[in-house]
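Exercise 3.2. Students should predict the tertiary structure of the chain below and write it as structure tokens, then compare their answer with the key that follows.

Predict this chain's 3D structure.
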Amino acid sequence: MHLRARHKGLSLLLAGLFALAALGGCGYHFGADMPTVLQQNGTSAGGSLPTLKIKDVDNPTMYPWLTYSLRNRLRDELAARQVARWVDSGKADFEISLKVQSFTYRTWMRDDNDVTTLYAANMILEGIVYRGDTNALLWRSGNIAYYQTYETMQERIAGEDLVVNLVRQLVDRMRNNF
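Answer key:
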């Protein structure tokens, strides 16, 4: 009986691989294989990854750490997904502006010592990509929103999680340019 179960598992695995191969032949692609909005609009010399730098971060909140967190998380996400090569200064193929539309914390629960233990956090972000050589508007992500409740005693931890999730969504939209 054990041999029969192993054979069935192997059969299912092979059927799945065959289906993936068939879909690939029909023109379907995995998201990671699709060109990004940057690659569709020109890359740097030699076919390498396009270069990208931050143009500005519009952060109208009272949280100065948010600007640095957005920059760092975007740099790390772009590098991890091999979407672009980050440059801090100088010429770049593209520049991106990040605009924080809103960022709020709500205290939901406090403990016996009046310390917040449950936060509701919400953030709306927009990314705007410009050509590095002409400063022409290339692409807008539209508003990207994320909301979550957090069981933590530090609001910054909740805020960092919002940033991570919003930056992932932003890069997803850069990849899925439809």
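Discussion points: The chain has a mean pLDDT of 80. The radius of gyration is 21 Å.
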